[in-house]
Every structure is written in structure tokens, then in C-alpha cells.
Amino acid sequence: MIDTSQAVGLLDLHHLREWYSAEELNLLLEDPEPVEEMFWTTSETPVWEELESIPQIAEVLHSLTEPGQTFTFQGEEPINKYAQGARLDDGNFMLELAVVDGRAYNMRITYGPDADQMSSHPDDDVERYGPQSLTLAQVYEVLAGWVSGRGLPAGYGGSIHIYG
Q1: I need a labelling partner for 104 at 20 to 30 A (CA). Which of 18, 65, 83, 123 fits?
Q2: What confidence score (pLDDT) does residue 94 get?
Q3: pTM, full prediction
Q4: Closest CA to 162 of 107, 124, 105, 123
């Protein structure tokens, strides 16, 4: 076993500088692509655009600044899954994921231990600051996992509403 206790705080940079630009630091970050071809649209940009990378999800969400503005992500035709959501009046988002197989199995995403007890019925409103009112970071976390094919992160869930 290698003793690393003496190495703490001894990062050796060969080119010492006072600061690094944001562009240089961003090159260090992973820029993964979705596992399948995905497209997105919003109520503000009603044209379907290709999702070029997972971090682009954050850009789409940041573009929605007013309550009631919506977004949708989906695969190519025939559609087998989609995600949709809206900016809420509390500043957070509502998010629904669905699998389509002749019917649409729609799940409104909830954070917390009672996720499977919350309603996914379209006529039920999302409670302000409630467990279905997700921050931008939470929606990004769920969507990044979803388009990566990893499923829901720990702590998230929901009940399923079936259409069709």
C-alpha cells in the first residue's frame, strides 16, 4: 500500500499561473452525448432541435424564465419515450417522464420517500415547493440520467398514469 498522507496539498503544477479561464476549465469537464438520438423543443422555440450533448439540457432549462413555459425531450420517430415539464410559479419545475408502447406510461417525478404515493394524474396540480416541485438542478440530474440510459437517480420516483 502506498502512503499518500505526506502528499496532501502538494499538487505540482509545471506551469504556475494565477488563474485559469473558464474556457480552459470547461475543457476539463466531461461533455457526454445521449445514448440515443434525442430532440428537444420549448414553448418559446417551437422548432425541434437535436440534443447535441447532455449539458445542453441545462441550457434548455435556463431558457425558461416565466411560469407556464414548457419543454419536451423525445427520441426520434417512432417515439418510445419522452420527457416534458414546465416552469412553475414558485420558480421550480414540474417534470414528467413517459415510456410509449402503444400506450403512454407517464410518471410525474417526485423527490422524497413518498414518491410512489404522489399523483401523476394530469388534473392534479403540483404543490408549491412540494416534492413534485423540482429545482433546475434536480430536473437536470434526472434528465441527464434519463438520456444517458441510467434511469432515475436515488431518491426520485413517482406513480404512473396510463394514457391510451
Answers
A1: 65
A2: 94
A3: 0.78
A4: 105
